[in-house]
Amino acid sequence: MADEDWRSRRRDAAAAQADALAQRQAAEHAAARRLLADFVTEARRIGVEPVPLRARSYDGRHRYRTPLEGWYLRSNESVAVSTAGDFYVLSVPAGVRALLRGVEPEPADPPLVLGRGGRDGESVDLADALRAALER
Questions:
Q1: If 0-12 CB within 10 Å is exposed, 13-18 middle and 19+ buried, where does residue 36 land?
Q2: For the chain, what is the radius of gyration of the CA atoms?
Q3: Nearest-angstrom CA–CA distance, 58 and 68
Q4: Are 108 and 91 in contact (CB under 8 A)?
Q5: How confident is the model over 76-131, as pLDDT tens digits?
Q6: What whole-number distance in Å separates Cα of residue 55 and Cα of residue 111?
Q7: Euclidean distance between CA atoms 26 and 53, whole angstroms
Q8: Which residues contact 50 (CB under 8 A, 6 or more apart)?
Q9: Rounded to whole angstroms, what are the CA distances from 92 to 51, 67, 83, 85?
Q10: What is the pLDDT of residues 19-31, one digit of tens each?
Q11: CB burial string 54-67: b at 16+ within 10 A, e below
Q12: In this structure, is the dihedral angle defined by the CA atoms of residues 10, 15, 20 and 25, taken in order, positive or negative?
């Protein structure tokens, strides 16, 4: 009986933690979407022209056409915001079909920190990346 109570409490605690994490992530994505929308409005207002966005293969050896236009947010062109305000990670699997037809990346949930969890010096606040994109 005590083991069942303990397991039940652990299961409830894990579910509560998962719910709290999902709520924090949803709030972060919503805040990041607002930053992206403000960026697109400001870029258009000051005349920063969007460019055709290209995706890279995971190994970095190939670049592929996409139907997207927007602004790159990192100098290595790995992430971008489209003219519609959607966030894209521009890394895709390599393939002959992609070389011939291009690729259509799916929008991703935007983070408030680009590269979080990566190597030292590779993360940057989304707000800073957007500011830099307006200055380029």
A1: buried
A2: 19
A3: 19
A4: no
A5: 999 999 999 999 999 999 988 888 899 999 999 999 999 876 665 678 999 999 99
A6: 19
A7: 27
A8: 43, 69, 70, 71, 82, 83
A9: 19, 14, 20, 20
A10: 888 899 999 999 9
A11: bbbbeeeebebbbe
A12: positive
Query: Cβ distance 114 to 26 under 8 Å?
Result: no
Q: How far is Cα of residue 74 from the mean position of the Cα atoms in its chain?
A: 11
Helix (H, G, I), strand (E, B) or coil at 100: helix
111: left (phi over 0), alpha (psi -120 to 50) or beta: beta
Could you give the 3-state DSSP secondary structure of residue 67? strand
pLDDT tens digits, one per residue of 39-85: 999 999 999 999 999 999 999 899 999 999 999 999 899 999 999 99
* The one-letter amino acid at 115: G
Q: Are strands 79-82 and 87-89 parallel, antiparallel or unpaired?
A: antiparallel
- The tokens describing 56, both together, are 């890279």
Tokens linked to 61: 């050896």
Q: In the structure encoding, which two tokens stand for residue 90, read together?
A: 């521009």
